[in-house]
Amino acid sequence: MTILSTSNLKKIYGAGENKVHALDGVDLKVAKGEFVAVVGTSGSGKSTLLHMLGGLDRPTAGTVTVDGKDIFALKDEELTIFRRRKIGFVFQNYNLVPVLNVYENILLPIQLDGNEPDGKYVEQIIDMLGLSSKLQNLPNNLSGGQQQRVAIARALAAKPAIILADEPTGNLDSKTSQDVLSLLKVSSQRFAQTIVMITHNEEIAQLADRIIRIEDGKIIGNGGGKNEGSK
Amino acid sequence: MITEKIALVVFIIGILCLAGAGFIAFFDYYYRKRSLKRMYDMIKAAMDGTFQAHNFDESLYAAVENKLAEYIDAAETTAGKTAKEKEQIETLIADISHQTKTPLSNILLYTELLKERAGSEENRENIELLENQAEKLNFLIQSLIKMSRLETGILVLNPRKSSVAELLEEAERQYRNKAREKGLYLHVLSEDARDVTACFDKKWTLEALGNLIDNAIKYTQAGGVTVRVRPYGLFVCIEVADTGSGIAEEEHARIFGRFYRSPQVSDQTGVGIGLYLAREILQQQSGYMKLTSETGKGAVFSMYLPV
């Protein structure tokens, strides 16, 4: 089942002679539960692609469909709510709220939506990410790796259709990176969570079920596909 | 005088109308909010499994409640059916594993007896072929049973905090001879893992690691296999590196699939189940597997176990 797809996605910046094709006709399909890495050098258009997938920026042409919904057919306000309910973000610089403690940060997206959190599920996530003893801490008392784990917990807690991760280990040392990536991988397996991760690092990308290479706004490699045996 | 009175009456009527409209609007708002709240509570109760229909009157609300009860009932029936089907699969697997054991071991036994008094060279060759095939069948059935037990959740792993060094040493004991027979080295750097512990099921993790080492030996012609440990904060990584022919990137995702065999190795014995089984075992204990390889540069399979 396809949970995320784009069709002929284009983003052009500037006009006339200064035109830059940041994305030049991207067709992409991601199946439910798949862990996909998008690899490219800086300036290849990978961040632009992630912004489009997450509805953070509008394309010049083409569509993005998340969970059966063409997201750019939505009004701005609807898109904001759709994003909150269906898409989890994990950024390079964590983006935690500094005045809220770890537990409040994790529950924030659910509570913004006026819902009661699924206590058991949230507890499972906290336990798996090894955050049980840190729940009352404020983010700036945590190490980078711990902060990123909180960000992953926050993204998972709302049970989004997809998680978009933008260089999730960009600010971490290599040892901590390995832990954070491992947790991302295990979460994707355990909760059948669809994850699209952007990275410039080939080694990190190896972790994914499938690697998509992007260059000059075009997809050039689309290896493997979902392996048959995985669930 | 009279006009004043009429004006006053009209004014009062106007005020009353406004108050009435206001009251109706408020009531409507309140009523709608209450209905939605009741629906929300109903669905929430259904999700928690505590839902019960309370109202049996002619109202629309009672009808909605009734329909939901019907829906939940149907869903429960389906769940019951699925549980029963799973039970049937369990029985089937148990039957197959139990009923094939005796005939298979008899075939192996009598083949061995035959071999001892084979007589002519031609007979001996045939009997050896027979023996190979019987052993392969035995291995295949054992693997299939393990696989379906893991997949259907009949088999539950018991991860416990255990020593990684002990795991490596046991694996080395099992595969030392196999590597030596093929003229390969098997370096297991268990010294590095002296104080490293991780959370894993000993028996099954050994099986997964064994499959990786077995594969590495099988697909390496010269050089050998190195097993090393890398501890991280929350995970421990066990790497099995070989100096074999490597695996092309297009195959990385497929190689963990069941019964997948790379075209490069299609002339070798094997059924293509080892890696699939190993990955299932890792996943069941909240770990995962990773492959790094390029054609011609050997392959590194990494097992990540949670601490």
Descriptive report:
Chain A has a domain at 33-48 and 82-222: P-loop containing nucleotide triphosphate hydrolases (Rossmann fold), CATH 3.40.50.300. Chain A contains seven helices and ten strands. Residues 224-231 of chain A have low confidence and may be disordered. A six-stranded mixed sheet of chain A has the order 6-7-8-3-9-10, sandwiched between helices. Chain A has helices at residues 46-53, 76-86, 102-112, 119-128, 144-157, 174-190, 202-205; strands spanning 2-13, 20-31, 35-39, 61-66, 69-70, 87-90, 162-166, 194-199, 210-215, 218-222. With 231 residues, chain A is an alpha/beta fold. In chain A, helix 3 (102-112) packs parallel to helix 5. Chain B is of the alpha+beta class and 307 residues long. Chain B folds into two domains: 78-151, Helix Hairpins (Orthogonal Bundle); 160-306, Heat Shock Protein 90 (2-Layer Sandwich), CATH 3.30.565. Helices cover 59% and strands 14% of the residues of chain B. Chain B contains six helices and seven strands. Chain B has helices at residues 2-48, 60-116, 121-151, 164-181, 202-218, 274-284; strands at residues 160-163, 185-188, 197-200, 224-231, 235-242, 288-293, 299-306. In chain B, the strands form two sheets. A five-stranded mixed sheet of chain B has the order 2-4-5-7-6, with helices on one face. In chain B, strands 1-3 form a two-stranded antiparallel sheet. In chain B, helix 3 (121-151) packs parallel to helix 6, helix 4 runs parallel beside helix 5 and helix 5 packs antiparallel against helix 6 (274-284). The longest helix of chain B has 57 residues, at 60-116. In chain B, 21% of the residues are buried. The mean pLDDT of chain B is 85. The chains are: A alpha/beta (231), B alpha+beta (307).
